[in-house]
Amino acid sequence: MAHPTTKSGSRAVDGTPINVMIVDDSVVARRILSRILEEDSRFGVVGSYSDAAQALQALSRERADMILLDIEMPGRTGAESLPDLLQASNHAMIVMLSGHHAEGDPVALAALAQGASDVITKPMAGHFSAAFACALTERLFAIFSGRDKVSWRGDDVQRITQPHGLTCPPRAVGIGASTGGINALTDFLGALMELPRAPIFVTQHLPADFLPFFAEQLARQTEFPVHLAEDKMPVVAGHVYIAPGNAHLEVTRAAHRHVLIHHSQAKCRHGVYPAVDPMFMSLAEVYGAGACAIVLSGMGRDGMAGAEAIVRAGGSVIAQDSASSVVWGMPGVVVQAGLACLTIPPEEAARILSESWRMAA
User: Fold this and answer.
1) Residues catalogued as catalytic
2) CATH homologous superfamily for 172-360?
3) How far apart are CA 196 and CA 354, in angstroms?
4) In the predicted model, what is the mean pLDDT of residues 6-20?
5) In 3-state terms, what secondary structure has residue 319?
6) What pTM, to 2 d.p., does this model score?
């Protein structure tokens, strides 16, 4: 199955409306959402449908940049229809609509794991206010344009090529992921054959409110200690640290050579928190040749600049292969830049790392 290398945000910034399709069984919700979007020149509504079957038929005729999809609908739910809509739309950004508080909802988290870009809670009927309309359009615009703001043209530096294979057993592993990355990360951690001999740092693009629940879910699914990374938290080998939603996850070396978590609010080229590049760059600075970056499924280019910093420091970069990625954007640009020493499925990356630690023991 072919995957697009990137999802361009140019339609969000060049004056061309973002084509939005609405799929919701509530006629009231469809009308109100259509009116909200049609009153904002940044958006254009290309269709409004009561179920996913109608939307799938329409996608053979209409191009949608973004789909607003109700999670719970009679018959086949939006969550169940999500993979088909992603495929039929050539991986349009899909924002799930929930009729109740979505943060922490297992169904909402599952939708994000399958490739949804965000989950938004709809007001109850009769409570669609002007404030909601403004918040909705700004959030949708940020989702579409913020994932891939950077037009990479080589950054005016001579790129280097990563040699094949790991340079050495990693002393720290950083994992960056976005759309489709939750399942890939779970596959990677599940395939590790024993307690890692290095700390694992994770930056997963998710709505900020979902990250604590994502960390809790990951802790239940793995045998390793999983933490939502706190500022100044000591780093321990074999532990997994998840970037929070309001800061970049970085590391710093304190007195007595101890490594600590550092929260950074520094502006980053991708304009989102948390971003992968700052994490990778800090790993390169602290761990040097002992740093290993793993770039999993996701849209955009976040992680490429940090991957290059790790290669320049003598470390290794592994990219998820196209066949196992939901979207081969983030790993794809790393491969195309010559920065990946291996391009493999997440489970294979886990096996190789486990073997490297065992051989070094």
Assistant:
1) 178, 205, 302
2) Methylesterase CheB, C-terminal domain (3.40.50.180)
3) 7
4) 63
5) strand
6) 0.79
